[in-house]
Write a structure and sequence with these properties.
- The protein has 2 helices and 20 strands.
- It has 348 residues and is an alpha+beta fold.
- The protein folds into 3 domains: 169 residues, Immunoglobulin-like; 117 residues, Sandwich (Immunoglobulin-like), CATH 2.60.40; 52 residues.
- Strands 1, 4, 6, 7, 9, 11 and 12 form a 7-stranded mixed β-sheet that branches. A 5-stranded antiparallel β-sheet has the order 2-3-5-10-8. Strands 15, 16, 18, 19 and 20 form a 5-stranded antiparallel β-sheet that branches.
- The longest helix has 51 residues.
- The protein is rod-shaped and about 145 Å long.
- It starts with a strand and ends with a helix.
C-alpha cells in the first residue's frame, strides 16, 4: 500500500496549506504546481485576501473560487472544503480528507468536486456556505481547496498537492471570548558562583475556552518571597490566533534571577479579540502563578565551610587554653610539692 503525502497551500496565512499573506492568489512551492487560486469577485467584494463571512444560524452565502492553469497541459483538480486547525509550529493548516470536518469543511459546499482546466485558462468554481440552524455562535476557520494527487514511484508514495483559500466564518449570536492560563510552572537554573544570579524558565498553557478566535499579549516575571528581587522576562512573543478549544504551550526564559530559596512566577496574559472587520480589542488580563525552590547550594556550601572553619578554630583555641591551663596547674602543683619536700628536709 502506498503512503499518502499531503502538501497544501492556502491564501492568507494557512501555512501547511501554503498561503501567501497579503495576496489574492497563491501558488504552492513545488515547481510542478502550475495553478493559482483566488477569491471570486462579487457583491461580497473583489481582490479579497480570503473568504470572510458573518452568517446567522440557518443562513446561506453564495460565492466562488477562481482557479487558473498557468501550465502547458490540462489539469484535473479535485475541489473540497475542510476545517482548519493550528499546528505545533503556530501555523494554520487544514484537516485531510480522512479526517472529519464539523464546521467550515461541513458547511462549505462546492458546486463540483472536480474541475478540468485547459492551459492558460481560468475556471470559476461556485460554492454555497450553508450554516445549519443548530450551529453554535462563534468563530470557525477552514478553507476551500483544489487538489492534485500524483504518484511518486521512486518514493513509493502518493503526493497530494493542495492549494486553496482560507475561509473565516462567524456565526451570529452571543460571543464569549475567553482565554485561560493553565499549569504555570517555573524551573530555576543556578550557577557555581555563590554570589551570582541564575536563570529561570516559566512554562504554561494558553487554552481558548471561549467561542471566538483570540490571540494574546503576554508578560511574565519571577520574584522571591514578599516580591523581593523581582526579575521581569523580556518581550514575550504573541501566540498564534487560537481557534475555540485550541491550546498553546508557552515557554518564557527569565534572566538574572536571585536564588531566594523560594521563587514565585507570574504570567500575565491580555487576550486580544479581532472582530470580523479586523478591529482588535483588548480583554481583561488573566493572571496565574506557580512556584519552585531556588536554594543557593553553592552559597550554602560556602557558608557551611566558613561556619565549620570558625567552629574548628574556636575548638582549637579552647583546647589550647585548656592545655595551657593544665600545664600551668601541673607546674604549680610540682612547685608546691617541691617546696614541701624542701621544707620537710630542712626540719629533719
Amino acid at each position: 500500500m502506498h503512503a499518502r503525502l499531503v502538501r497544501t497551500a492556502l491564501v492568507t496565512a494557512l501555512a501547511g496549506v501554503a498561503l501567501a499573506a497579503g495576496t489574492t492568489s497563491a501558488t504552492a512551492g513545488d515547481d510542478d504546481v502550475t495553478w493559482t487560486v483566488r477569491t471570486g469577485s462579487s457583491d461580497l467584494g473583489a481582490d479579497r485576501t480570503s473568504f470572510t463571512y458573518s452568517v446567522k444560524p440557518g443562513g446561506t452565502v453564495d460565492d466562488s473560487l477562481v482557479v487558473a492553469n498557468h501550465g502547458a497541459t490540462p489539469l484535473v483538480l479535485g475541489v473540497l472544503a475542510a476545517d482548519g486547525y493550528t499546528t505545533e509550529s503556530g501555523q494554520l493548516d487544514l484537516l485531510t480528507t480522512d479526517e472529519t470536518s464539523t464546521g467550515v469543511g461541513a458547511w462549505v459546499d462546492p458546486q463540483t468536486t472536480s474541475i478540468t482546466i485547459q492551459p492558460d485558462a481560468t475556471v470559476d468554481v461556485p460554492f454555497k456556505v450553508q450554516v445549519p440552524d443548530s450551529a453554535t455562535p462563534g468563530d470557525y476557520v477552514g478553507g476551500i481547496v483544489t487538489s492534485l494527487t500524483q504518484s511518486d514511484t521512486e518514493e513509493g508514495i502518493n503526493v497530494d498537492r493542495r492549494l486553496g483559500v482560507k475561509v473565516t466564518l462567524h456565526v451570529d449570536g452571543e460571543l464569549h471570548p475567553s482565554l485561560a492560563v493553565e499549569g504555570v510552572s517555573v524551573a530555576y537554573h543556578g550557577t557555581l558562583n555563590p554570589f551570582a544570579t541564575g536563570d529561570a524558565t516559566i512554562t504554561y498553557t494558553l487554552q481558548n475556552t471561549g467561542n471566538a478566535i483570540v490571540s494574546a499579549r503576554q508578560a511574565a516575571s519571577v520574584a522571591g518571597p514578599f516580591g523581593w528581587f523581582t526579575a521581569h522576562a523580556g518581550e514575550v512573543a504573541a501566540p498564534p490566533q487560537l481557534l475555540p478549544g485550541e491550546s498553546w504551550k508557552v515557554t518564557v526564559p527569565v534572566d538574572d534571577v536571585a536564588p531566594t530559596v523560594r521563587l514565585s512566577a507570574q504570567a500575565l496574559v491580555t487576550p486580544l479579540l479581532t472582530d470580523i472587520s479586523g478591529s482588535t480589542t483588548s480583554l481583561d488580563p488573566v493572571a496565574a502563578a506557580g512556584s519552585t525552590w531556588a536554594i543557593p547550594w553553592s552559597l550554602l556550601v560556602l557558608v557551611l565551610v566558613v561556619v565549620g572553619a570558625i567552629v574548628g578554630i574556636v575548638r582549637v583555641l579552647r583546647r589550647n587554653r585548656r592545655l595551657r591551663a593544665a600545664q600551668e596547674e601541673a607546674r604549680v602543683q610540682e612547685a608546691v610539692e617541691l617546696a614541701l619536700r624542701e621544707r620537710a628536709d630542712s626540719v629533719s
